[in-house]
Amino acid sequence: MTYSPCQIIGENRPSRFLITCDHASNLVPPDLGGSLGLPVSDMARHIAYDVGAAGVALGLGEALDAPVVMSNFSRLVIDPNRGEDDPTLIMKLYDGSVVPGNRHVDAEERARRIAAYYRPYDDLLARMTARRDDIAIISVHSFTPQLHGRPPRPWHVGILHPSWDVRLSDPFIAALEEEPDIVVGRNEPYPGHLPGDALDRHALRHGRQNTLIEVRNDLIEDETGQRHWAARLAPLLQRALDLAVD
Predict the structure, then answer these.
(1) Would you list the DSSP string of the chain?
(2) What is the DSSP string of 23-52?
(3) Max CA-CA distance within the chain?
(4) Which residues, at least 6 apart from 179, have a Cβ–Cβ distance to it below 8 Å?
């Protein structure tokens, strides 16, 4: 089977929503030998991909009848949720793990990875976000329950957004806060905007409706959890979009 750095599921689905998953896979492409020299245990961690996020994204796509765009390479190969000039685009050390396959990445190899993996995904996002004027982009990610040496993270879901664009995020957070068993964090566990990131490139610079969902990954480690959270989030997203100001 021919390798592709990205994929789209349900391209012709009619919804206003476009579901994206920047860190869907922990795959190392064949032309890199299928490995970056890390043990399997590291490649199964958050450092390599967003655990469970792809399943949630696919479930949201089904529930909302929306297209889903997903990467097909590990963020350790190159991070499609960073700007091309970001120094963290290709990580050589991540959360205590040295990435052997990245230790000697030079400008030439960086440019090759941008052309081979990053730009095909970015181009697909550009094409799909331009498919209609009233697009609403939902970027799906996951986060770890606890960082080493830090307190446990209490949130089930974090909603990330910049301070100047809350059109979709505000009604979505309000809908989540009405659910008695969901702990939601605004711009938790990370700040809500990184210049040059995927939503900055494809939503904010164009004035498009958007929000970024972070689900705690211990809740979505298996298909049951992924389907559960997609089913919980989908009607709340639809309610939020119906209330959002264009």
Answers:
(1) ----SEEEE-TT---SEEEEETT---PPPGGGTT--S--HHHHTSTTTS-TTHHHHHHHHHHHHT--EEEE-S-TTT--TTS-TT-TTSS-SEETTEE-GGGTT--HHHHHHHIIIIIHHHHHHHHHHHTS-TT-EEEEEEEE-S--TTSPPP--SEEEE--TT--TTHHHHHHHHHTSTT--EEET-SS-S--TTSHHHHHTGGGT-EEEEEEEEGGGSSSHHHHHHHHHHHHHHHHHHHHH---
(2) T---PPPGGGTT--S--HHHHTSTTTS-TT
(3) 52
(4) 232, 236
What is the rounded CA–CA span in Å between residue 14 and residue 23?
Answer: 24
Q: CB under 8 Å to 149, separation ≥6 — which residues?
A: none
- Separation CA 224–CA 79 (nearest Å): 28
pTM: 0.96
52 Rama class: left (phi>0) / alpha (psi -120 to 50) / beta: left
The pair of structure tokens assigned to 160 is 């990330």
Residue 60 CB coordination number (10 Å): 25
Q: What is the pLDDT of residues 88-142, one digit of tens each?
A: 999 998 877 889 999 999 999 999 999 999 999 999 999 999 999 999 999 999 9
pLDDT digits (tens, 9 = 90+) for 24-53: 999 999 999 999 999 999 999 999 999 999
Residue 189: cis peptide before it, omega within 30 degrees of 0? yes
What is the mean pLDDT of the segment spanning 167-175?
Answer: 98
